[in-house]
């Protein structure tokens, strides 16, 4: 089985619609794909409706969190999307995205970058606006060559010159809320140092003690030595070690299935989940 547990659609900051994403996942030879848009489950229904036969969908979200001033992302799988407390927190994060993005546009303008809010809004479309949309605007303007190059201290990285904060969950609260909604939590790309500051391993141990289920080990932002170290850390802490592409369509260079999750780990994730269950494809229907 080929299992990719971290992808994004136009419901947040990817460039594939949810329907396109599941069709592309099937074409890439995946057996299982998780749709984990930022702080939203809005793309799930469209993905389910278009799900090809032979492909299983894992519903999820990537939750924006912050610990001791350091931003981190928590992948949440197979939770009940209607659980009110978790739904309310996701809404708070989403509601803060537009004011935050406008603040970042204002900071860029102060730095002499001729970016306009209308440009960022056009790029985001119906998705939850975020830093990747602003980064793409910088690429369009020729300020940086790629989206990844915008995530530096000079521009949009945590603490960067154009960075602005938004409402984010405490990761310990995120773990509690996701568990209460019957879901499973995996710390996304925990050692992606090129994105900015990362939390120390001691903090990961504290999260594990609080109920964290796993860490995303095999990821494009982790070099081979880092992946080896994280596999060891997961074993030491009794955490599940996952692998994923973090696919964003054409917005990033990663491809579907670039990294995958061991079927036994996937089986354990589904065993622990009680809020929702993987959806097997039944053929789907055409969708935009």
The total beta strand count reads 8
Strand content: 15-25%
Separation, N- and C-terminal Cα atoms: 28 Å
Oligomer: single chain
Mean pLDDT, nearest integer?
94
Number of helices: 10
Q: SSE order, as H and E?
A: EHEHEEHHHHHEHEHEHE
Unreliable stretches, pLDDT < 50, 5 or more residues?
A: none
Profile the largest sheet.
8 strands, mixed
Supply Rg.
18 Å
Percent helix among the residues?
25-40%
- Class by SSE composition: alpha/beta
Described by the principal axes of the CA atoms, the overall outline is globular
List keywords for this structure.
36% helix, alpha/beta, 10 helices, globular, 288 residues
List the helices and strands and how they pair.
Elements: E1 3-7, H1 18-27, E2 32-35, H2 44-49, E3 56-67, E4 70-77, H3 84-95, H4 97-110, H5 117-124, H6 131-140, H7 171-180, E5 184-187, H8 201-209, E6 214-218, H9 224-237, E7 240-243, H10 263-272, E8 279-280
Parallel strand pairs: 1-2, 2-3, 5-6, 6-7
Antiparallel strand pairs: 3-4, 3-8, 4-5
Helix pairs in contact: 5-6
């Amino acid at each position: 089985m080929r299992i990719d547990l971290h992808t994004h659609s136009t419901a947040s900051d990817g460039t594939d619609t949810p329907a396109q994403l599941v069709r592309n996942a099937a074409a890439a030879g995946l057996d299982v794909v998780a749709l984990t848009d930022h702080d939203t489950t809005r793309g799930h229904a469209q993905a389910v409706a278009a799900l090809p036969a032979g492909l299983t969908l894992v519903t999820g979200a990537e939750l924006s969190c912050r610990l001791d001033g350091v931003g981190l992302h928590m992948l949440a799988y197979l939770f009940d999307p209607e659980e009110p407390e978790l739904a309310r927190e996701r809404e708070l994060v989403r509601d803060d995205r537009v004011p935050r993005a406008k603040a970042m546009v204002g900071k860029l303008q102060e730095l002499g970058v001729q970016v306009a809010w209308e440009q960022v809004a056009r790029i985001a479309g119906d998705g939850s606006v975020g830093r990747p949309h602003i980064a793409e605007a910088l690429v369009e303007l020729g300020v940086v060559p790629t989206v990844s190059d915008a995530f530096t201290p000079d521009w949009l990285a945590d603490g960067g010159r154009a960075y602005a904060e938004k409402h984010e969950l405490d990761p310990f609260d995120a773990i509690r809320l996701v568990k209460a909604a019957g879901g499973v939590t995996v710390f996304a790309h925990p050692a992606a140092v090129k994105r900015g500051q990362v939390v120390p391993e001691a903090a990961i141990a504290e999260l594990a003690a609080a109920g964290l289920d796993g860490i995303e080990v095999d990821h494009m932002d982790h070099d081979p030595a880092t992946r080896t170290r994280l596999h060891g850390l997961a074993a030491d802490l009794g955490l599940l070690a996952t692998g994923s592409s973090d696919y964003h369509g054409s917005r990033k260079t990663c491809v579907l299935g670039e990294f995958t999750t061991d079927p036994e780990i996937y089986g354990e994730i589904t065993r622990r989940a009680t809020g929702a269950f993987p959806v097997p494809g039944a053929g789907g229907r055409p969708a935009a």
